Amino acid sequence: MDGREYPARPLVGIGCILFRGQDLLLVRRGRPPRQGEWSIPGGAQHLGETAEAAARRELAEETGVTAGPLSLAAVVDAVSHDDTGRIRFHYTIIDFCGLWTGGEPRAGDDVTEAAFFAPDALPPLWHEAVRVIAEARLRLGLG
């Protein structure tokens, strides 16, 4: 275990909901939780790192793209239990949103794919991801 599984307290996760026009940047997760699923780029905040700096770092590490100004989109509590009912993962996820400024998506760090998706071509997503993406669209005036 790497300290993320069966934590003593919630961990801070950071997400970056990024749009290029109406298209949304997503990554396919390379490890648990939700391994193999499409998701918002993001990861764990490092000690001494601001939340926004973590969002920009994770975005660059996982996708190779850059963003302009970022705004807070939403906060999500992600709690997963194992078969015995113990908490296996507990993240408090701070999701930022912004617009793409450069770079072409490429899988990096702990993701297996990175790509922009048109609104009518999104892959299946976790219900909380769908909610915060909708919130981000509203905050950025994208409908």
Could you outline the blueprint of secondary structure elements for this entry?
Elements: E1 11-20, E2 23-29, E3 38-39, E4 42-44, H1 51-63, E5 66-67, E6 71-81, E7 87-102, E8 111-117, H2 127-139
Parallel strand pairs: 1-7
Antiparallel strand pairs: 1-2, 1-4, 2-3, 2-8, 5-7, 6-7
Would you give an account of this structure?
It is a single chain. The protein has one domain (11-139): Nucleoside Triphosphate Pyrophosphohydrolase. Strands 1, 2, 3, 4, 5, 6, 7 and 8 form an 8-stranded mixed sheet that branches. Strand 6 and strand 7 (87-102) form a beta hairpin. The model has no long low-confidence stretch (mean pLDDT 95). Helices cover 18% and strands 41% of the residues. It starts with 10 loop residues before the first strand and ends with a helix. The protein has 143 residues and is α+β, with helices and mostly antiparallel strands.
Annotation keywords:
143 residues, Nucleoside Triphosphate Pyrophosphohydrolase, 8 strands
Give a concise summary.
With 143 residues, the chain is an alpha+beta fold.
Q: Which geometry do the CA atoms define?
A: globular
CATH topology: Nucleoside Triphosphate Pyrophosphohydrolase
Chain-averaged pLDDT: 95
Percent helix range: 10-25%
Number of strands: 8
| Cα distance spanning the termini | 41 Å
Number of domains: 1
CATH class: Alpha Beta
Largest sheet composition = 8 strands, mixed
Tally of helical segments:
2
Tell me the structural class. Answer: alpha+beta
Q: In percent terms, what proportion of residues is strand?
A: 35-45%
**pLDDT < 50 runs, ≥5 residues:** none
Radius of gyration: 14 Å
Kindly report the name of the CATH homologous superfamily.
Nucleoside Triphosphate Pyrophosphohydrolase
Which second-level CATH architecture applies?
Answer: Alpha-Beta Complex
Give helix and strand order, one letter per element, not per position. EEEEHEEEEH
